[in-house]
Amino acid sequence: MVSYLQADNISRRIGDRIIFENITLNVNKDDKIALIAVNGAGKSSMLDIIVCIESPDNGTLTIRRGLKIAYLRQYPHLNESYTIIDELFSGDSELVRAIKEYEKCLSSENHENLHQIIQLMDDLKAWEYEVAVKQILFRLKLTDLNARIGTLSGGQKKRVALAKVLVEDSDLLILDEPTNHLDLDMIEWFEEYLIKSNKTILMVTHDRYFLDRVCNMIMELSGNQLYSYSGNYEYFLEKKEMREQAEKANVDKARNLLRTELEWMRRMPKARRHKAKSRIDSFYDLKEKSVYKAGDQSININVNISRMGNKILEIKNISKSYEDKLLISDFSYTFNRFEKVGLIGKNGTGKTTLLNIITGLVTPDSGTVEKGETIVFGYYRQEGIEFDDDMTVIDAVKKIAETVVLGDGSTLSVTQFLNYFLFPPDKQYTLIRKLSGGEKRRLYLLTVLMKNPNFLILDEPTNDLDILTLNVLEEYLAGFRGCVMVVSHDRYFMDKVVDHIFENKGDGLIKDFPGNYTQLRNQEEENEEKEAVQTKDKPREAAKSISDSGLKRSRKSGLSFNEKKEYEALTYEIENLEKEKRIIEEELRSSNLEHNELLKKSKRHGDILKTLDEKEMRWLELNEKSG
Length: 627
What we know:
CATH superfamily of the largest domain: P-loop containing nucleotide triphosphate hydrolases
CATH class of the largest domain: Alpha Beta
Shape: globular
Strand content: 15-25%
CATH architecture of the largest domain: 3-Layer(aba) Sandwich
CATH topology of the largest domain: Rossmann fold
Oligomer: single chain
């Protein structure tokens, strides 16, 4: 077993607060580890220590000599002035340096080192790397490589950072919440990519299906300690429950002993106190053990909701476009009481636009939205966190209400309600700017729910929330006596919460499916299998390699007539360009060319690469569209 890195007895404190203490962690070659914990427990701090961005307060970190690590931070730091392609090739690996030097040589008048650079590109298999980069960019919907980082949305920046990590020449991938800002198609592709990858992985994730498929080990940071489980998510849950039951049993035993000791302490004559110091010390040890300090505290968020009338929400023939892009086309739906619907679709298809139209923040181009008189929306928005960072947690909540009415009619003080949401008393007086991203999300969710809505609209509520908070939210939504509409890329969350799904297919088309996400995907796969069987007996030209890059040629049935013709034409064009590129590369390596001929061939080589880039992107687009 080859050890990649080992952290021994590392600790991290922020002020007087212990984040974690005397943690020991091992990462071996071929491990695929998920690190989970409640928000604020120190997951990101631990990753920063492992990659030497931060230093532990004590302990040692040992990293295998020559180990190449690629790190995706939860909030990546990118150069705002760079283009996407600049950022992707800003790494310092030998492979990246070779490609940068090659591009620099082609674009300048100095071609003295061109032969050596091309040889190096061959040795490093850089041509295959180039195709792999294009495929990753296509899957992550990053097609405008000349776009400036500063003009991108937060989600696009996270995808650029992810692409950069994936194309790096690394042995160990360290990923902090990698599925945030990916749509469902991207996540499923990313799963397959990591499953097939031979890289070792350490990642923080709350996506339980993703975790279950990719990882073979789970590490849980709880109560300042690290617990390891070799197995999937179900195995982790079983062993975690057993551990907590054992801890609780020890606490109960300590409490019984404490009760006996307390009676002894009270009866003990004062004159004998100096003779029983060891027993007094034992008493205080028992007192410490009798307090159950499970890392995962229970949360009860059975909040009261406003009364609902018979009329809920009627959407009638709404349409919406932005410039020349149609997002919603003639969509109608009438909500009934207690409906829980999921809204899915690729990024940019208009999911948030639909939510904004429903809540009145955006006006449709045509059609109407009629809300029942008793309906009170609770809208959890992606960009909705607007706290005063210099306020304390408790003051921010008290601005909304001093007490919270529960479903059974009883009331809770703000302090009690915050405690249910894993904000213990000492945390309640923390300044908001000192909270982690996930803790701010949890606080925002709390403020939405405590306003007693009867129609919850949740736009990506799972981003940055830990698994415990997601479990609690799922249980709350399961018993919520109102309507719910949720956008989420978390398939596990969707499966537990929703009754049916609105699927935005693109080009404004929204279809209603009577089931959860997994049922939808199973139905789609069954349809694909039936279609494959139906076409199997029809004469088809066998699949054929169109280039050394591994792209495969096949006839596609999901395209229009003109698109099929374009697809077939692109196939042959790419084949011919690849052949010409290989011939030119052989000529450039031969060292037999005159200076003028060398310049001419180099320029043609650059033109071919640019043309191939455009044609392969279009080929991939048509290939993807065809299914």
